[in-house]
Amino acid sequence: MEKIRIVGGRPLEGTVRISGAKNASLPEVCAALLTGQPVVLHNVPEVRDIRTMGHVLSDFGADVQFRVGGTVEITAAELTSVEATYDLVKTMRASVLVLGPLVARARQARVSLPGGCAIGARPINLHLQALEKLGASIRMASGYVEAQADRLRGAEVAFDTVTVTGTENVMMAASLADGETIIRNAAQEPEVSDLADLLVKMGARIQGAGGSTIRIEGVSSLHGAEHRVIPDRIETGTFVAACAIAGGDIEVRNCHPAHLRAVIDKLRETGIRIEEGPDNLRVRAPRTMRSSDVTTVPYPGFPTDMQAQYMALMTQAAGTSTITETIFENRYMHVAELQRMGADIRIDGRTAIVSGHTPLSGAQLMATDLRASACLLLAALAARGETVVDRVYHLDRGYYRIDEKLRGLGADIERIDQGGGRRATDAVPAVEA
Ligand code: EPU
User: Fold this and answer.
1) 380: CA distance to ligand 1 center in Å?
2) Which residue among 160, 181, 193, 254 is buried most deeply as judged by most CB within 10 Å?
3) pTM above the 0.90 mark?
4) Please, what CATH class does the domain formed by 3-19+231-432 belong to?
């Protein structure tokens, strides 16, 4: 199993290019199930989760071609199976995104229930209730969701809780339903809007994506389309945070600053200097960061997917900060590892109280989930001495070659295999979380 070794203390300099958004690419790959014609996606990050989704679609009989440079071509001419097995779903919860498209196109789906994961229970009850509203009959059998619908019909779906993939599932299903669907309390994340953009290119009639009410007028069929995925806003934020914690001056290219409003505003409050261009950011680390409290909320607020990275920063800021996680109930797995490096963090319910300016020292660390792993890399950049992060396959699920990108900025970082030797970055292990 691969590990990443980092020696802290080197400021970052130079330019980094951001990849396409994982969380936009995942539903967009699934949207290809809605048509028999080819869907071509560009700027898809070549990360493990996307490969896994490719396997899920291949199992249904779709032809999935990964081209060099981040282009994926999917043709689901005929669906030969509608079953997503436990073996695949357990490795990636986002597999639930096949449910809406399968029910809409094939009128049936059998998808394994994902179960809990490292950051919380993450039920899918809201996805299921919404599909029932659209006329699907749903039953549970042997750990699988079995959904069936002779014809989906438009309905009003009001989500109790904002759910990103729930909104995406309904948007995809409703695109092929009879009549109008209205989603209230919809997720407003840029990934939802990007999926809507793709669906509209495929012939769907969707209005209001990006706001809290989305209207979808169902059509009888969708056709092929070509689409460029938006840049990954969380990868962007992670590199801004990396520069801030390591020190230095970097340019982040191929990003979309408007999607990071809350993150940029918060990081500026801590003293980080950020200049915005149309598709780039210049980031200059301050001599000393200031503490600032944050609460995670759905978009356009501060994202839960940046909470762990922000906590690493706050361990180095002057003063005490509180970080409150409201989206997931168990997203503090990185805290124990940060404490082992010397951080002073106390958890009180959903709030972490971080005393800043604590010197961190390198340690042997264990990655537990994607964003927690990124947090540990950031802490290691600021730590004295050597850090070795184990289970880096978590990182490879969602960050494209983050170690190479950091090395390109001057960080002392390398990927090593179990025996201690260096390994190529693309040798991702077959096992996932
Ligand atoms: N929820 C329910 N029932 C449901 C669905 C959600 O109770 O049926 C709850 C969840 O347990 C959670 C809250 O609603 O407490 C919000 O969860 P949401 O459904 O929005 O999360 P998700 O769609 O499963 C996506 C991203 C996550 C990101 C969250 C929140 C994808 C593929 N995943 O997950 O990304 O953290 O939205 O923004 O889009 C990551 O990239 O590291 C990651 C975990």
Assistant:
1) 28
2) 181
3) yes
4) alpha beta
